[in-house]
Amino acid sequence: MGTPLDSREAQVEEVIDRLHKEYPDSTISLNFATRLELLVAVVLSAQCTDERVNQVTEDLFEKYESAEDYAAADEEQLAEDIYGITFHNNKAGYLKGIGEILLEEHGGDVPDTMTALTDLPGVGRKTANVVLQHGHDVVEGIVVDTHVQRITRRLGLTEEERPEAIEEDLMPVVPEDEWQAFTHLLISHGRAVCTARNPDCTDCELEDLCPSSKLDHDTDLASGEVWS
């Protein structure tokens, strides 16, 4: 029976506890060695799988090693170098622009503030949060990607729809020392079990807490649609 606990705080605590046990090694799946590589990888990962990004950046990071390299790049060549990435033409422009701004305003380094990061082309709050957390060990919020967006709504942790609103809604109920882990736990669970189209509710360790469980509920709270 998918029945949430009495409060969002209790629901969050139980979800985190169970997912830590299920995915003890959950962490970021993008490959990077420097802050710049992290920034580039996260920009490329928008609406693209981490697996594909890792394939592309394996060669990309050998060719482009600094902000200077991206700033000086021919945009058409850069687009070709990231071919296979979703919206590769647009993202080539973002990477070149990022290189230029890092050179002009930050001495070629990746900045460590939300404001400076979100001033970069192609960088929104989600991307900035990832860079801050994994590049600078600064945790200012919760990264809300598609998995977090979907699963928090399914679990009844939020009724908000936009990532920014979801983050704002979750921050008071998710313990601050779990903000970073919370994202990776839900991403791991979203990939393994609570998929977008056909979640495996039968084998889900959260099924008894989930008001969207297909086993005894009619509606996917993530989409508001009736289960097919």
UniProtKB/TrEMBL annotation:
<keyword id="KW-0456">Lyase</keyword>
<feature type="binding site">
    <location>
        <position position="201"/>
    </location>
    <ligand>
        <name>[4Fe-4S] cluster</name>
    </ligand>
</feature>
<dbReference type="GO" id="GO:0006285">
    <property type="term" value="P:base-excision repair, AP site formation"/>
</dbReference>
<dbReference type="Pfam" id="PF00730">
    <property type="entry name" value="HhH-GPD"/>
</dbReference>
<dbReference type="InterPro" id="IPR003651">
    <property type="entry name" value="Endonuclease3_FeS-loop_motif"/>
</dbReference>
<dbReference type="InterPro" id="IPR000445">
    <property type="entry name" value="HhH_motif"/>
</dbReference>
<dbReference type="GO" id="GO:0003677">
    <property type="term" value="F:DNA binding"/>
</dbReference>
<feature type="binding site">
    <location>
        <position position="204"/>
    </location>
    <ligand>
        <name>[4Fe-4S] cluster</name>
    </ligand>
</feature>
<comment type="similarity">
    <text>Belongs to the Nth/MutY family.</text>
</comment>
<keyword id="KW-0378">Hydrolase</keyword>
<keyword id="KW-0411">Iron-sulfur</keyword>
<comment type="function">
    <text>DNA repair enzyme that has both DNA N-glycosylase activity and AP-lyase activity. The DNA N-glycosylase activity releases various damaged pyrimidines from DNA by cleaving the N-glycosidic bond, leaving an AP (apurinic/apyrimidinic) site. The AP-lyase activity cleaves the phosphodiester bond 3' to the AP site by a beta-elimination, leaving a 3'-terminal unsaturated sugar and a product with a terminal 5'-phosphate.</text>
</comment>
<feature type="domain" description="HhH-GPD">
    <location>
        <begin position="44"/>
        <end position="192"/>
    </location>
</feature>
<dbReference type="InterPro" id="IPR005759">
    <property type="entry name" value="Nth"/>
</dbReference>
<dbReference type="GO" id="GO:0141016">
    <property type="term" value="F:G/T mismatch-specific thymine-DNA glycosylase activity"/>
</dbReference>
<dbReference type="InterPro" id="IPR003265">
    <property type="entry name" value="HhH-GPD_domain"/>
</dbReference>
<dbReference type="InterPro" id="IPR023170">
    <property type="entry name" value="HhH_base_excis_C"/>
</dbReference>
<keyword id="KW-0408">Iron</keyword>
<keyword id="KW-0238">DNA-binding</keyword>
<keyword id="KW-0326">Glycosidase</keyword>
<keyword id="KW-0004">4Fe-4S</keyword>
<keyword id="KW-0540">Nuclease</keyword>
<keyword id="KW-0234">DNA repair</keyword>
<keyword id="KW-0255">Endonuclease</keyword>
<dbReference type="GO" id="GO:0140078">
    <property type="term" value="F:class I DNA-(apurinic or apyrimidinic site) endonuclease activity"/>
</dbReference>
<keyword id="KW-0479">Metal-binding</keyword>
<dbReference type="GO" id="GO:0046872">
    <property type="term" value="F:metal ion binding"/>
</dbReference>
<protein>
    <recommendedName>
        <fullName>Endonuclease III</fullName>
        <ecNumber>4.2.99.18</ecNumber>
    </recommendedName>
</protein>
<dbReference type="Pfam" id="PF10576">
    <property type="entry name" value="EndIII_4Fe-2S"/>
</dbReference>
<dbReference type="Pfam" id="PF00633">
    <property type="entry name" value="HHH"/>
</dbReference>
<dbReference type="GO" id="GO:0051539">
    <property type="term" value="F:4 iron, 4 sulfur cluster binding"/>
</dbReference>
<feature type="binding site">
    <location>
        <position position="210"/>
    </location>
    <ligand>
        <name>[4Fe-4S] cluster</name>
    </ligand>
</feature>
<keyword id="KW-0227">DNA damage</keyword>
<dbReference type="InterPro" id="IPR011257">
    <property type="entry name" value="DNA_glycosylase"/>
</dbReference>
<feature type="binding site">
    <location>
        <position position="194"/>
    </location>
    <ligand>
        <name>[4Fe-4S] cluster</name>
    </ligand>
</feature>
